[in-house]
Each structure stands twice: as C-alpha cells, then as structure tokens.
C-alpha cells in the first residue's frame, strides 16, 4: 500500500476506539495516529491506554492524511463546519456514520475531496467486524484499496455500490442486535424450562458460536445445515413449526426492511433544502 499514512479518528466512542486498537495491533505506530474526543477524561484515558495523542478537530484535519469520521449522525453538521476550513483537498475522508451519504461530505467539504463510506458493525470491538465500503464521486481505486486494507485490521470487508449501503446498514450494521435479541429470548426459554440462567446462557452462546463457525467454514447453505438437525418427527421440526406459526421469518423480513427505511430517513435529514 506504499508509505504508512497518518490517520485521525474523529470521535473516540466504542467504534472509534475499536478502530484505534485494531490499527495498533495491525502494525500502526501511536505516532501515526491521533483522535478527537469531546470529554477530557475519556481522552486522557485513551491516551494512557494506547499512547495515541488526543487533539482538536482542526489539528487532526491539518495533520492527518486520512480522517475517519466516527461520530453519531446527529453530530455531523457541527463537525463538518469545523472540518471545512481546515481540511486539505488531498485528505481522504472515511465516514463510518450510519445513513449519511458521501454526497453530504462532498457538498460540505472542499471541492474534489475524496470520500469513502463504510458501514461496520459492533463486532469490530473483538476484531470480527463486517464492513461494507463504497466510493464517493471523487474517490479513486487507490482510496478504496486503502480503506479496504484499513478496515481489514478489525474484521472482514466487502465492496458494494453506495446505493446498497442502506440495505447493508439494516442487515449487518444492525445485524448483531438481532442475534443478541434472539439469544436473549432463547436464554429466557431455558429459564422457563427450569435451567439456571448461567447454564442456559452457556448452552446458547456456545451453540451460537458453533453454528456461526459451521456457516463460515462448511460452505453449506443454511437450509442444508438446518435440515441436518431436523429429523423427521423430532424435536427440532416441532420447534420450527411453532416459529413458522408465529411468523418469525416474516417478522425478521419486516424488521430489517424497517431498519433500511430508517437508514434512508437519516440520510434525507441532511439533504439540502
């Protein structure tokens, strides 16, 4: 990828911190990184933990080759107001903000700014993110290749057209929450059946880890793997019958569609009048 680029992470919440940690584990030096954080106590804690310098937005914009925007979507307008007069047109901007299109950044930042949109998810915190990346109007192939390498430090990466990013947000961006929700319900079911909470949790969590590993490593379609567990007249088919009777599949389809619609709304909220 050539010489190591300097990187500024704007917003050091959980996702921003996870990226800093992943980059350091991936070979970046603390001297190659800076971050911004609105709370001084949090900034001091992260500097102590990682040895990375906390700076203000203007300093990050003037110093870094790459700026990773990891703030909440509702905080983007004041951040762009700070960035616009300070950023160089050579700077690559990487946005991790859910629902916000590259056009928003291109409109508010200097003409020709390269922007790449990324939708990661919270397993980034354990180095197992699924990130989808899309180039903006001015991003060149080298920009996209760099962002792909950057995000590979915290998980797997796929390239998609930006028109698919709202669907990605709904499916994998929010996806871990759906799994946590199902695991929570299954643990409650174990308690209902008389198991201690700790035992139920251990059974379900390891079953989830094992099932995910089988999906990732076997190359089999999920239907094939499910059918292998579903014996004629057995316990599993009785459970599947109840799931279908209660419309669990349809509920998931509707839920993910609703998440997609909300992602679209977030982007529209920042469109020009």
UniProtKB/TrEMBL annotation:
<protein>
    <recommendedName>
        <fullName>Pyrroline-5-carboxylate reductase</fullName>
        <ecNumber>1.5.1.2</ecNumber>
    </recommendedName>
</protein>
<dbReference type="InterPro" id="IPR036291">
    <property type="entry name" value="NAD(P)-bd_dom_sf"/>
</dbReference>
<comment type="similarity">
    <text>Belongs to the pyrroline-5-carboxylate reductase family.</text>
</comment>
<dbReference type="GO" id="GO:0005737">
    <property type="term" value="C:cytoplasm"/>
</dbReference>
<dbReference type="Pfam" id="PF14748">
    <property type="entry name" value="P5CR_dimer"/>
</dbReference>
<keyword id="KW-0521">NADP</keyword>
<dbReference type="GO" id="GO:0055129">
    <property type="term" value="P:L-proline biosynthetic process"/>
</dbReference>
<keyword id="KW-0560">Oxidoreductase</keyword>
<keyword id="KW-0028">Amino-acid biosynthesis</keyword>
<dbReference type="InterPro" id="IPR029036">
    <property type="entry name" value="P5CR_dimer"/>
</dbReference>
<comment type="function">
    <text>Catalyzes the reduction of 1-pyrroline-5-carboxylate (PCA) to L-proline.</text>
</comment>
<dbReference type="InterPro" id="IPR008927">
    <property type="entry name" value="6-PGluconate_DH-like_C_sf"/>
</dbReference>
<keyword id="KW-0641">Proline biosynthesis</keyword>
<feature type="binding site">
    <location>
        <begin position="70"/>
        <end position="73"/>
    </location>
    <ligand>
        <name>NADP(+)</name>
    </ligand>
</feature>
<feature type="domain" description="Pyrroline-5-carboxylate reductase catalytic N-terminal">
    <location>
        <begin position="6"/>
        <end position="98"/>
    </location>
</feature>
<dbReference type="GO" id="GO:0004735">
    <property type="term" value="F:pyrroline-5-carboxylate reductase activity"/>
</dbReference>
<keyword id="KW-0963">Cytoplasm</keyword>
<dbReference type="InterPro" id="IPR053790">
    <property type="entry name" value="P5CR-like_CS"/>
</dbReference>
<dbReference type="InterPro" id="IPR028939">
    <property type="entry name" value="P5C_Rdtase_cat_N"/>
</dbReference>
<feature type="domain" description="Pyrroline-5-carboxylate reductase dimerisation">
    <location>
        <begin position="162"/>
        <end position="266"/>
    </location>
</feature>
<dbReference type="Pfam" id="PF03807">
    <property type="entry name" value="F420_oxidored"/>
</dbReference>
<comment type="pathway">
    <text>Amino-acid biosynthesis; L-proline biosynthesis; L-proline from L-glutamate 5-semialdehyde: step 1/1.</text>
</comment>
<dbReference type="InterPro" id="IPR000304">
    <property type="entry name" value="Pyrroline-COOH_reductase"/>
</dbReference>
């Amino acid at each position: 990828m050539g010489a190591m680029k300097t990187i500024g992470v704007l917003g050091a919440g959980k996702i921003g911190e996870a990226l800093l940690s992943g980059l350091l584990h991936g070979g970046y030096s603390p001297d190659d990184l800076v971050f911004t954080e609105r709370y001084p106590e949090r900034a001091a804690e992260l500097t102590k933990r990682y040895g990375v310098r906390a700076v203000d937005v203007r300093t990050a914009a003037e110093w870094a080759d790459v700026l990773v925007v990891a703030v909440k979507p509702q905080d983007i307008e004041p951040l762009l107001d700070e960035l616009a007069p300070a950023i160089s047109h050579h700077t690559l901007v990487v946005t991790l903000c859910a629902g916000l299109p590259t056009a928003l950044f291109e409109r508010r930042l200097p003409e020709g700014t390269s922007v790449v949109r990324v939708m990661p998810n919270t397993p980034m915190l354990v180095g197992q993110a699924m990130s989808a990346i899309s180039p903006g109007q001015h991003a060149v192939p080298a920009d996209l290749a760099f962002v792909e390498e950057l995000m590979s430090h915290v998980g797997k990466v796929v390239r998609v057209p930006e028109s698919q990013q709202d669907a990605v947000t709904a499916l994998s961006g929010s996806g871990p929450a759906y799994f946590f929700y199902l695991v929570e319900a299954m643990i409650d079911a174990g308690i209902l059946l008389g198991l201690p909470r700790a035992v139920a949790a251990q059974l379900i969590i390891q079953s989830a880890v094992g099932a995910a590993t089988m999906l990732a490593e076997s190359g089999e379609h999920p239907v094939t793997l499910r059918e292998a567990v579903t014996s004629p007249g057995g316990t599993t088919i009785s459970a599947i019958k109840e799931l279908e009777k209660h419309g669990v599949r349809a509920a998931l389809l509707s839920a993910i569609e609703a998440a997609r619609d909300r992602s679209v709304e977030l982007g529209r909220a920042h469109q020009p009048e």
